[in-house]
């Protein structure tokens, strides 16, 4: 059976992270499972964790009263979900719902926030990695907005 | 016969239109049409026994031979999958000569996905790793939502040994080329097809001219490095 340490150290997100930091992060990690249709979190709830998706698919949705939720993006195997734990006021801005049975590693963001505050080198390392994900998602969102396929 | 562009001359006095031969079956040409404009609508009205003129093939096809021995990454957006199909068929026919073959396809919505049966067939019988995404989902869609470029980072291939063939809207190809470069695919091994509006197909009329280049004659398939330079000229 793969250990959490092996899974995390083999993931591109944690590539090159110093071993002591990796051990510290493993201490904040746990395996989680979600059934199809189950919510990982909902808009407005406190954001105290992030997820590394191991299998399955999760939809990020925007809900509005009286209307069906609109899925704006899905995330699958190997992808990172959630950065609201890192940015005040630490509340989720979207709903996250498992579209199919999903396995993930949950990382305790509250625990990591504390460690980042007391060790800025760790904080900078994590922030750089999340900034990269944010840049990729922003770029993807802009391409999505362009509606490049139009009415073919 | 190499998978290359062909041109369909006037059907009922319409202007010629460039098209791709979907596949060649000995001497029978099998074409695919999607009713998008005057020519394809006229083609759709043809009856058994009517005559349709085809001349060609012209231009430069996908360099499938250059990809032999390595992995292949095919990225298509929208109806850009149609021009890629000859390359896919050529690869399927010689599947053992290539390493891993990955196809990533993006469409506007689930209803806009083209060639769904082919996608299933390539996935199930041709050992092609097929990933499909849509920019906008629906309530019943349980597949991937997001742009096609997001599927490149985790595509199962050895990027440094890969050749990429990309076709779709020009903006999509630019973002895709960036994602391929970030993944580590050598820039000189990224090929794109510029589906500009072509007419004469022999580099005379200038309809498809991009600077000194005639897309119909010199292309439509170009290395991305060259295509990017042409597309960077705003006036073109």
Architecture blueprint of SSEs:
The complex is a heterodimer of chains A (152) and B (236).
Chain A: H1 4-9, H2 19-26, E1 29-34, E2 39-41, E3 49-64, E4 67-75, E5 80-81, E6 95-108, H3 109-118, H4 120-146
Antiparallel strand pairs in A: 1-6, 2-6, 3-4, 3-5, 3-6
Helix pairs in contact in A: 3-4
Chain B: E1 5-8, E2 17-20, E3 23-25, E4 28-30, H1 38-44, E5 71-77, H2 81-93, E6 101-107, H3 116-125, E7 128-134, E8 144-145, E9 162-167, H4 170-183, E10 190-193, E11 209-210, E12 213-214, H5 215-218, E13 221-223, H6 224-231
Parallel strand pairs in B: 5-6, 5-9, 6-7, 7-8, 9-10
Antiparallel strand pairs in B: 1-2, 3-4, 10-13, 11-12
Considering the chains and any ligands shown, give keywords for the structure.
heterodimer; A: 152 residues; alpha+beta; Jelly Rolls; globular; B: 236 residues; alpha/beta; Rossmann fold; 6 helices; 13 strands
Radius of gyration of chain A: 16 Å
* Largest protein-protein interface: A-B, 25 and 27 residues
| Amount of beta strand of chain A | 25-35%
Q: What's the number of extended β-strand segments of chain A?
A: 6
How large a portion of the residues of chain B is in β-strands, by DSSP E? 15-25%
* Contiguous uncertain segments of 5+ residues of chain B: 25-29
The radius of gyration over CA of chain B amounts to 18 Å
Q: What is the fold-level CATH name, i.e. the topology of the domain at 64-193 and 222-231 in chain B?
A: Rossmann fold
Q: State the CATH class of the domain at 64-193 and 222-231 in chain B.
A: Alpha Beta
Give the CATH topology of chain A: Jelly Rolls
What's the SSE pattern of chain B?
EEEEHEHEHEEEHEEEHEH
N-to-C series of helices and strands of chain A: HHEEEEEEHH
Q: Total helix count of chain B? A: 6
Strand pairing plus helix content of chain B: what structural class?
alpha/beta
Q: Sheet with the most strands of chain A?
A: 6 strands, antiparallel
